[in-house]
TrEMBL record, chains A, B:
Transmembrane segments: none annotated. Keywords: NAD, Oxidoreductase. One of its GO terms (molecular function) is oxidoreductase activity. PROSITE patterns: 3_HYDROXYISOBUT_DH. It comes from Rhizobium alvei. Pfam families: NAD_binding_11, NAD_binding_2. Gene3D superfamilies: N-(1-d-carboxylethyl)-l-norvaline Dehydrogenase, domain 2 (1.10.1040.10), NAD(P)-binding Rossmann-like Domain (3.40.50.720). InterPro entries: 3-OH-isobutyrate_DH-rel_CS, 6-PGluconate_DH-like_C_sf, 6PGD_dom2, 6PGDH_NADP-bd, HIBADH-like_NADP-bd, HIBADH-related, NAD(P)-bd_dom_sf. Residues 167-285 form the 3-hydroxyisobutyrate dehydrogenase-like NAD-binding domain. Residues 3-162 form the 6-phosphogluconate dehydrogenase NADP-binding domain. Its EC number is 1.1.-.-. It comes from the Bacteria. Belongs to the HIBADH-related family. This is NAD(P)-dependent oxidoreductase.
Length: 289, 289
């Protein structure tokens, strides 16, 4: 049992912090920008909440962050009243935000300058994965710190891997999102074509999903896609945020991402159609428009 | 045990005909444009070979065709010495070629005009699937004829489904190839980016392949992609043939296939790089050029 702080109680962070308390059995203090959500969390799970990231983090062995983007992340860590200013030497900052590899390296440097440690640990598995505590966690950082943090992370994860030095967790998450972009567009074109061709989509998927066209997305999204149901899942706004990070990093490392860049534009069309909160599978709605 | 004819002993047809003989226990007669291959097949499996499709088909209950394209298919069925001219009333023509939905409907009409029947039955699973007799077979045609033919088809298949009237098997196969086009390009961009980012691809895939980015292609192709090994599998030339059929049908039914069309162009680049016989996963080689 460790002293754990969780900063950022969004759709992902709220249940993840809950698993650290209930499944992990840790002594958890939370912080959230809007205090109401922190109060609600404490009412549901026990523990304590604090009014600043620094105050929340001052006694912790492990400080988790799960916020919206690089700027929010800098604000709650190295900003005024950020957690790093208060963390005790030897404590580990574990960041679950999907952010740039750059900010991860920056935070490792800032943490180590204070005698603390850092792991970037973006997750995949969405809201359902967070609620069920079965997320995939892609970590970057030093082996020893990863080994020490892993049993704590396990409270909300099914699969945890160290991908390399700081930033590598973020780079792995980028690969994940790049693969999804092309895959979901291919699936959307396939289902769109199938409907235009008059095929029974359920019967079709039952036959092709076990073969070379098969994927998690086909298995888990074809039914809602066929029904035109998109008001759930991983929001297009968030996917575009992630793809912007991928495309920016690719500009740096020289990778060519022609279809990822195109699909990012397609998601722009979906946003313009009113689909900012729709699931990523809504690329189909754009084709059907 | 039925009298079966198999026309077209290519990389797919050769082992499929073998399964009809050995696993199905049928009385098999084969025909191939180059007779040497038919002689070799008979030396390996027994049975007989004939010198024309008509001669091969004259006593058969089921006549299978598995040739290169629409024109080859017309030639061995309704062309001079084509099998339909010799088939007895009630016999079923089962076409395993990946062809247009149009030619499937045309062949059903031609078969029925002679008192025969027709099933379009393109397969997926590649050379390995054919050799191991575990293909996925997408059928189009009449329910009763499908039910009668299914136990015979089972000799080389793991999954057999009726997708609708004649041509529907071909349309289902098109959906399969459309899904694969986007999926493989996304996977290629992901692995390309991961290599540029300095990630250990094996460690990365071990973590992300169970989640939302996971697919048959990721599972079965990441290792060879990472090694730059493309001299195996489903050839780019054949993929382009299939994508041409998809894009042509989409022109007819109005489906929008922007990424499929783009990936078809990318495969054109791979052909120009000398990759006509490379596996479809060679989209990665194009990005790395």
């Amino acid at each position: 049992m460790a002293k754990v702080t969780f900063i950022g109680l969004g759709v992902m962070g709220y249940p993840m912090a809950g698993h650290l308390k209930v499944k992990g059995g840790h002594d958890v203090t939370v912080y959230n920008r809007t205090t109401e959500k922190a109060e609600k969390w404490v009412a549901q799970f026990g523990g304590r909440f604090a009014l600043t990231p620094a105050d929340a983090a001052k006694d912790a062995d492990y400080v988790f962050t799960c916020v919206g983007n690089d700027d929010d992340l800098r604000s709650v860590t190295i900003g005024a009243d950020g957690c790093l200013s208060a963390m005790k030497p030897g404590a580990v900052l574990i960041d679950n935000t999907t952010a740039s590899a750059e900010v991860a390296r920056e935070l490792e440097t800032a943490a180590e300058a204070r005698g603390c440690h850092f792991i970037d640990a973006p997750v995949s598995g969405g809201q359902a994965g967070a609620e069920n505590g079965v997320l995939t966690v892609m970590c970057g950082g030093k082996q020893e710190i990863f080994e020490r943090s892993r049993p704590v992370i396990d409270a909300y994860a099914r699969m945890v891997g160290l991908m390399g030095p700081a930033g590598s967790g973020q780079l792995a998450k980028m690969v994940n999102q790049i693969c999804i972009a092309g895959l979901v567009q291919g699936l959307a074109e396939g289902i769109h074509f199938g409907k235009k061709a008059g095929l029974d989509i359920e019967a079709l998927i039952a036959v092709i999903s076990k073969g070379a066209a098969g994927s998690w997305q086909m298995e888990n999204r074809h039914k809602t896609m066929n029904e035109g149901k998109f008001d759930f899942g991983f929001a297009v706004d968030w996917m575009r945020k992630d793809l912007a990070i991928c495309l920016s990093e690719a500009r740096r490392n020289g990778a060519k991402l022609p279809v990822t860049a195109l699909v990012d534009q397609f998601y722009g069309d979906v946003q313009a159609m009113g689909g900012k909160r729709w699931d990523t599978s809504s690329l189909l709605a754009r084709l059907e428009k």
